[in-house]
UniProtKB/TrEMBL annotation:
<keyword id="KW-0812">Transmembrane</keyword>
<feature type="transmembrane region" description="Helical">
    <location>
        <begin position="172"/>
        <end position="195"/>
    </location>
</feature>
<feature type="transmembrane region" description="Helical">
    <location>
        <begin position="71"/>
        <end position="89"/>
    </location>
</feature>
<feature type="transmembrane region" description="Helical">
    <location>
        <begin position="344"/>
        <end position="361"/>
    </location>
</feature>
<feature type="transmembrane region" description="Helical">
    <location>
        <begin position="556"/>
        <end position="577"/>
    </location>
</feature>
<feature type="transmembrane region" description="Helical">
    <location>
        <begin position="589"/>
        <end position="619"/>
    </location>
</feature>
<feature type="transmembrane region" description="Helical">
    <location>
        <begin position="402"/>
        <end position="427"/>
    </location>
</feature>
<feature type="transmembrane region" description="Helical">
    <location>
        <begin position="463"/>
        <end position="485"/>
    </location>
</feature>
<dbReference type="Pfam" id="PF06808">
    <property type="entry name" value="DctM"/>
</dbReference>
<feature type="domain" description="TRAP C4-dicarboxylate transport system permease DctM subunit">
    <location>
        <begin position="114"/>
        <end position="547"/>
    </location>
</feature>
<feature type="transmembrane region" description="Helical">
    <location>
        <begin position="101"/>
        <end position="119"/>
    </location>
</feature>
<keyword id="KW-0472">Membrane</keyword>
<dbReference type="InterPro" id="IPR010656">
    <property type="entry name" value="DctM"/>
</dbReference>
<feature type="transmembrane region" description="Helical">
    <location>
        <begin position="433"/>
        <end position="456"/>
    </location>
</feature>
<feature type="transmembrane region" description="Helical">
    <location>
        <begin position="491"/>
        <end position="513"/>
    </location>
</feature>
<feature type="transmembrane region" description="Helical">
    <location>
        <begin position="126"/>
        <end position="152"/>
    </location>
</feature>
<feature type="transmembrane region" description="Helical">
    <location>
        <begin position="222"/>
        <end position="249"/>
    </location>
</feature>
């Protein structure tokens, strides 16, 4: 945990700052106005930055080798607190007097300093690559009118005006992505920490173990389902892979899975958390703000593609287990389902509370706080889960770390959005992309996929999404693509780099746990997670598979057919067809092609796909009968 470098004093500072930040969020979202505190929106957002950006200098070291807080960390902390508090107090003047264009001397110079501090905080939390990208693009408006490429030409600004526009306007650092944190995302991140700290991760893992532990290849299926549960709450691919992988990978190796294959299973399953509701990282919440759509609409739309992703993985590992005659865990190693449910029912109850507030009471920002409070109360009442003062304190520190991380990243990425919108390039670029592609949806999709993948090597999913939501998504929408499908397409491709060499962060992390070759693990993860390469295209060409994006009957039919399609594709990839046995290369190719046809809502193509599946089954049955007949004659 990053807070290990903090002594007790600095831990208290982090905890207090976290409490203040969460209090500000609750006070704003529930309209409490406690102690007469009722800041206007821009002041509230500045204060949130003042709570979580300064502690990032304490939690995240300037160099990985540093094991204690240095004097310059304290200076950065103090200066960022002073600036954000000052600007927060001036929130009303910032708006009324138009400080984003013409501010007094002090706030202007404060804007420059905060600009630099935020980039340094971004370097510490998200790495040098993202920080440099944000730095370069944030400076781009200085030379925008002189860029020789017409596609990138735009309005230029002098340095002081640019600094004010970045920090004091509602278009850059405190733009739509950051506003989403204050109005929606903060509570969900708090809930994610609360549910894991109270034992939710263990509960969902044991629940998966009780359901699938005794099936063939049971340890791998437990890894998939457990990682799906854990990942949808944490939204972090790498931390999910490391946390759950420490338990699942040794179990998979013990049951007969090869080290690289076990590591690839865990990496692929963990990566799915970033595309699985309810949390999905932070991208889904920002998407809701970009599209001015209730978050639960996004979550509903994302549910079926996420299910297809895990279904494809599940079918492949089952096929591997069948081919290699791998058995499930023994009865003594598998907990009772009903006992597990009885001991941890309140975790599911807390999620149901959140869903109720999201879907039926339309209280998106408040929902996770209600769920967190309910979960904490029940956990403290039960003797088995009651937390000590130290555990509660550690939970506060974890919340502070998680919120500092996401606040800094999203605020930093705001530089990109601010620079592109201030120069006007964000509007012209998407228009030019459509023109360059000749209104071809497919060419724009390929360009978007490659861009997302490349950016995903050095940027977080949220950062990639925000960048492409401004440039790529509007281009897709302009050629008639469903808006939610267009934005989900970008999110999916932004996560691909977690399992794809040469970067493959999740795959490399699990490879180290398994003692396997990182590159071999990465390429195996690509095969297991290949559904993630396929489904985004079908979301575009058949948006009816997204719940709420088509007529009910059309959606149901599309989902059923897509399940059949994924079953065929996953079976072909692993080379094993349930009920038919191992497949030869020609059969695999035919099955793969037939599976692709199932995603197109064209009667003739669907019939061809189903006929291919039926013929392969008939052929395999005939071969099996002939083999059995020959064996009978020999006897």
């Amino acid at each position: 945990m990053k807070t290990e470098r903090l002594n007790f004093f600095w831990k208290v500072v982090v905890a207090v700052s976290t409490v203040i930040g969460v209090f500000l969020s609750i006070n704003m979202l529930f309209y409490i106005h406690l102690f007469g505190i009722n800041p206007i929106q821009n002041a509230y957002l500045i204060y949130l930055l003042g709570c979580f950006m300064p502690i990032s200098f304490l939690i995240f070291p300037a160099k990985k080798t540093q094991t204690s807080v240095k004097w310059y960390d304290v200076v950065f902390f103090a200066v960022s607190v002073i600036i954000t508090v000052y600007l927060g107090l001036q929130g009303k003047r910032i708006i009324e007097e138009g400080w984003d264009w013409n501010a007094p001397t002090i706030p202007t110079y404060f804007s420059i300093v905060l600009w630099a501090l935020l980039l340094e905080a971004l370097r510490r939390t998200a790495g040098l690559v993202l920080s440099l990208i944000c730095l370069v693009i944030s400076l781009y408006p200085l030379v925008a009118s002189n860029v020789p490429i017409s596609l990138l030409q735009g309005q230029s600004y002098d340095f002081l005006t640019l600094a004010r526009n970045h920090i004091l306007s509602s278009n850059s650092v405190f733009g739509i992505a950051y506003t989403t944190i204050g109005n929606l995302l903060l509570g969900f991140l708090v809930f994610g920490v609360v549910i894991t700290r109270t034992g939710g991760g263990d509960f969902f893992f044991n629940l998966a173990l009780s359901l699938f532990g005794r099936t063939r290849g049971g340890s791998a299926k437990v890894a998939v389902v457990g990682s799906a549960f854990f990942g949808m709450l944490s939204g972090s691919a790498v931390s999910n892979a490391v946390t759950i992988g420490a338990m699942t990978i040794p179990a998979m190796k013990k049951s007969g899975y090869k080290p690289y294959y076990a590591a690839a299973i865990e990496a692929t399953a963990s990566t799915g958390g970033t595309i699985t509701p309810p949390i999905m990282g932070s991208a889904a919440f920002i998407m809701a703000s970009f599209l001015a759509t209730p978050y639960y609409h996004i979550a509903l739309a994302a549910a079926v593609p996420a299910f297809l992703y895990y279904l494809g993985l599940f079918i492949q590992i089952d096929g591997y287990a069948a081919k290699n005659h791998l058995k499930g865990l023994s009865k003594s190693e598998v907990p009772s389902f009903w006992k597990t449910l009885k001991d941890g029912w309140y975790y599911i109850f807390a999620i149901l509370i959140m869903i109720a507030f999201l879907g039926f009471l339309n209280s998106e920002g408040q929902a996770p706080y209600y769920a967190s409070v309910a979960l904490l109360i029940i956990a403290m009442i039960k003797k088995e889960t009651r937390m000590s003062k130290k555990q509660l304190f550690d939970m506060l520190l974890e919340i502070g770390k998680v919120l500092a991380d996401i606040v800094v990243i999203i605020a930093g990425v705001g530089f990109i959005v601010g620079a592109l919108s201030a120069t006007g390039v964000s509007f012209s670029l998407s228009r030019e992309l459509v023109a360059a592609a000749g209104d071809s949806t497919f060419l724009i999709l390929i360009g978007g996929a490659l861009t997302s993948f490349i950016l995903g090597m050095g940027m977080t999913v949220s950062a990639v999404y925000v960048f492409l939501a401004v440039i790529m998504a509007p281009a897709l929408i302009a050629v008639g693509v469903d808006p939610i499908a267009a934005h989900l397409y970008v999110v999916y491709w932004a996560t691909v780099s977690y399992i794809t060499p040469p970067v493959a962060l999740a795959a490399f992390a699990t490879a180290s746990i398994a003692g396997a070759s990182p590159m071999k693990t990465g390429f195996q993860a690509v095969q297991l997670g290949s559904v993630k390469f396929i489904v985004p295209f079908f979301m575009i060409y058949n948006p009816a598979i997204l719940i709420g994006r088509g007529e009910p009957l059309e959606t149901v039919l599309s989902i059923v057919l897509s399940i059949i399609g994924i079953f065929m594709i996953a079976s072909s990839l692993e080379g094993y067809l349930l009920g038919a046995g191992a497949l030869k290369i020609v059969e695999r190719l035919l099955l793969f092609a037939g599976g692709l046809l199932m995603f197109f809502m064209n009667l003739y193509l669907l019939i061809i796909g189903l006929v291919v599946l039926g013929l392969i089954y008939l052929f395999k049955i005939k071969v099996s009968l002939n083999v059995n007949k020959e064996k009978g004659q020999e006897v």
